Amino acid sequence: MFNKTVIAMIHVDPLPGTPLWGGSMKKVLDKAVKEALLYKECGVDMVAVENMHDTPYLNRNVGPEISASMAVVGYEVKRASSLPCGIQILAGANKEALACAFAAGLDFIRAEGFVFSHIADEGLINSCAGELLRYRSSIGANEIPVFTDIKKKHSSHAITSDVDIAETARAAEFFRSDGVIITGRSTGLQADLEEIKTVKLSIGIPVLVGSGVTIDNVGSYLNISDAIIVGSWFKHESKWQNPINTDKVKLFMEKVRKLRK
């Protein structure tokens, strides 16, 4: 599935029921589709939709309005762009993301809290691997890969400080994760290269870089990972909440194509 793959994030506008909801699903859909088409034009390999603007997030508990909205967004993004498309629903709404992916014909989900526990912005998040993969099997969605964050950003891992990232990755693999995602401490911050190398040597499933990739460090990350997820750097001023900067995306993908040769 991956070959030094670039996955671009589509940060979906606020959805119904959230504090910043703007009142129009058409506007939400139009913007998400527009961003997907821009990414396709620039040569990005895949996209992923995420309800990043739905702050403050609930802890593994989103309403049916969020699931329904994200399924429609994912379906329209993939239909319009023909790009492989993944989905994440914050915070930790992994079963809902899987249901959306199954209903909308999406290609993967990004899950948090797969193995071990951590303290996130939203509170304590416990592991969900057993429940999630049994749910995947029960709805006949085993073909949809589940890529899982480990030692996730925006979180405290003090309660598992005696479990290093390599052991965490091995636990995720043992619990049948389809790939692990390594991030920096928060959105836009660089993931540690040595941690990625260590994890890559420790497991036999794909390793993805989930934050902090820029045009300056992309070569280092592509050299040691299977895929990179880029959100903030593709935006104006490298801020995730800003519009896409098409020139930056084009320059980035030109460099990636050279690195792949």
Question: Residue-averaged pLDDT, rounded?
Answer: 95
Low-confidence stretches: none
Q: Main β-sheet, in a few words?
A: 8 strands, parallel, barrel
Q: Count of helices?
A: 8
Give the fraction of residues assigned to helices.
25-40%
Gap from first CA to last CA: 18 Å
Strand percentage lies at 15-25%
Shape: globular
Q: What would you call the structural class? A: alpha/beta
* Helix and strand pattern: EHEHEHEEEHEEHEHEHEH
Main-sheet strand order equals: 1-2-3-4-7-9-10-11
Number of strands: 11
Oligomeric assembly: single chain
- What is the radius of gyration computed over CA atoms, rounded to a whole number of angstroms? 17 Å
Helix/strand layout:
Layout: E1 5-11, H1 25-42, E2 46-50, H2 64-81, E3 85-88, H3 94-104, E4 108-111, E5 118-120, E6 123-125, H4 129-138, E7 146-149, E8 155-156, H5 165-174, E9 179-182, H6 193-202, E10 207-209, H7 218-224, E11 227-230, H8 246-260
Parallel strand pairs: 1-2, 1-11, 2-3, 3-4, 4-7, 7-9, 9-10, 10-11
Antiparallel strand pairs: 5-6, 5-8
Helix pairs in contact: 1-2, 2-3, 5-6
Structure notes:
This protein has helices spanning 25-42, 64-81, 94-104, 129-138, 165-174, 193-202, 218-224, 246-260; strands at 5-11, 46-50, 85-88, 108-111, 118-120, 123-125, 146-149, 155-156, 179-182, 207-209, 227-230. It has 8 helices and 11 strands. The protein has 261 residues and is α/β, with parallel strands linked by helices. The chain is globular, with a radius of gyration of 17 Å. Helix 7 links the parallel strand 10 (207-209) and strand 11. Helix 1 runs parallel beside helix 2, helix 2 packs across helix 3 (94-104) and helix 5 runs parallel beside helix 6. The strands form 2 sheets. An 8-stranded parallel barrel has the order 1-2-3-4-7-9-10-11, surrounded by 6 helices. Strands 6-5-8 form a 3-stranded antiparallel sheet, with no helix packed on it.
